[in-house]
Amino acid sequence: MREHDTRAEAGTVKLPWKGAMFEIEDVGVFLGMDVGTSAHHGHGLTPAGKKVFDKPLPNS
Question: What is the spatial order of strands in the sheet that 40-45 belongs to?
């Protein structure tokens, strides 16, 4: 596994900076959000890495 690779094996994810593994069998989508001063941006990825949401969001 590469140093910053978060994939460990099917059904788990490894967080290299924590050294922990988590079960992800029941996860449908991983959500992320960049919060900025003037704009925000939302992200959604399936466990397989497919992008399902990626767009700017209002800063309100």
Answer: 30-35, 40-45, 51-57
Six token digits for residue 6: 């978060």
Give the amino acid at 51: K
Question: Is 90 exceeded by the pLDDT of residue 9?
Answer: no
Distance CA 34, CA 45 (A): 14
Give the Cα separation of 33 and 9 in Å (integer).
25
What is residue 20's predicted lDDT score, i.e. its pLDDT? 65
pTM: 0.56
Q: What's the rounded Cα separation, in Å, for the pair 45 and 28?
A: 9
